[in-house]
Amino acid sequence: MNSAGYEHDEIEALIAADALDGLEEADRLRLVQIMEEHGDECGECQALTREYAEAAADLASSLEPRALPAGAEDRLVAALRRSPDDSAEIVQLGDRTQRRERLQARAPSPARRWVAGAAAAALVAGAAGSLGYALGTRAAGDIEQLSAERLVAFMSRPGTRVLSFPPEGGQRLAVAFRPGEQTAFLVASGLRSLPNDRVYQLWVQPEGSTGVEPSGTFVPDDGTVVSAARVPQRFQALAVSVEPRGGSEQPTTEPIFATSL
Amino acid sequence: MPALVLERPFVSAGRPAGNPDSNLVRSVRAGDEEAFRELFRRYGPVAHGLAFRLLRHEFMAEEVVQEVFLSLWRNPDGFREDRGSVRAWLMSTVHHKAVDTVRREEAERRRTRQQASWDVELEGDVGEAVVEEAAAQDVRAAVRAVLREIPPEQRQVLELMYFGGNTQAQIARDLEIPLGTVKARTLLGMRRLRGLLGEDRR
What we know:
By secondary structure, chain A is of the alpha+beta class. In chain A, about 40% of the residues lie in helices and about 20% in strands. Chain A is extended, with a radius of gyration of 22 Å. Chain B starts with 20 loop residues before the first helix and ends with a helix. Residues about 1-15 and about 110-130 of chain B have low confidence and may be disordered. The chains are: A alpha+beta, B mainly alpha.
C-alpha cells in the first residue's frame, strides 16, 4: 500500500474494468478520486491506463469492420466545414482521463432543440420537403443537422410510410417506417414535460401478436422528439405510455397515444 | 513496466501502411481535410463495427461514429500522444459513447437481449464492402487467437462487458455469480489480454 492508502492491485482492477466501460458509478467515482489524488503523478498508473486502453482497442479489432453508408465520408467532411458551435461537447468526447472528470451528459444545445423542433413539426405535418427547406435556412449544430439529414434521407426513400397518432391537446406524434424494415423514426411536438422520474415509452404490437413489446423510451426536449427507433419488420399497432425512468417490460399505465395500421 | 504504445494501421480499411496516425492528427490540427479523411477511412469501419455491435442499430451506430470523428476534427488536442495511440483513443471514445447510448435506454437493453428474433437484417444504405489489407485480416485473426487463449469464464466476462455494454454488477446478476468473482475475472482476463497482445507487439 502506498502513502495515499491505495493498493496498486485495486487501482489496476479499476483501470482495467474502466477500459471496458464496465464500472458501476460508485467504482468510477472511486477511480476518479484515486487518479486525482495519486494517479496523475504515478508513472505506473499512467502506463496501466495506456496499456489497458490498447487492450480494449484490440478487442474492437477482433470484430469485422463494417462499411459506412455510401457518401458518409463526404457528408462528414461537409459537416465539419460548417462552423463549429458546440465545443463544450467536443471536450467531453476527449480521452478517458478527461472523461472521468465529466460523468454526466450535457444539456442539449439550443441548435439541437431547434432542429428537433423543425424535424418534428415537419414530419408530423407529413411534409419532408418543408423540413429540408427549414434546415437549409437556419444554423444548426453539425451533429443535429446530420441526424436531421438522415431523417430526410429516410423519408425520401420509396416505400416510407408515416403513421400518425390522433393529436391530443396540441400534442402531436408520428412514426415514419418502411414495412419489412426494422428502423423507424419517432417524431413528436408539443409533448408535455414529465417529472424527472418518468419517461414516455413507445410500444409496438407485432403482426399476429396479441401482446406488445417495448420499443424505446424518450424524453421530449422543449416538447419535441426526433429519435430513431427499432420496430418489428411487421407490426399492427403502436402506443405510447408514461413509464418510470428506464422503461418497463410491459405498460404500467394506460396509453396516452394509440394508433393502428 | 514499459509502456507499449504502438502506431499501426490496426484493421484498417483499404489503406496502405503509410503516414503514422499521430502525424495525421497533427495535420488535422492544422485543418488538413485529407488527413482527416485518411483517419476516417483507416478507422471508420472498425469504429462502425464496434458501435454497431453494441447498439445493433444502423442509424445509431453511424451517429456515434460521426460524433466521434467530428470531435476529432474540432478538438484534435483531445488526443494526447503521451496517453496512448490514436487507435485506442478513437475506439475508447466510440465505445464510451455507444455504451452511454445503450445505458440511457434501459428498454433498449432489454430489446437487445431479444436480439435473436429481431436481428434478421438491419437495413440501411450501406456502402461498398470494406476492402481490407491482408495485414489487417491477419491482425484480426491474431487477436481472435489470443482471445481463445483466455480461459472461457474470463473471456465471457470481457465480452459481456465490452461487447454487451454491461457493468460488472449487471454481469454478476445475469450470471448469478458474486460481484467479486466478476471483478477478479475482469482483471485476470485483461491482464492476459494485455500480456499476450503485448508480446505480439514486441
